[in-house]
Amino acid sequence: MDPTHQDAHPDARVDGSPDARVEDGPDDRPDDRLVDAYLRRLGVVRPPRPTAAALSELHLRHLLTVPFENLSVQLGERIVLEERRLVEKIVEERRGGFCYELNGAFGTLLTALGFEVTFLAARVFGEPGRLGIPYDHMALGVRTVDDGAWLADVGFGAHSHHPLRRADRGEQKDPGGVFRIVEAEAGDLDVVRDGSPQYRLEARPRALGDFVAGAWWHSTSPASHFTRSLVCSRVTEDGGRITLSGRRWKVTGPEGESEETELVTDEEVLGVYRERFGIVLERVPEVRAVEAGPRG
Question: Less CB within 10 Å around the terminal CB: N or C of the chain?
Answer without folding.
Answer: C
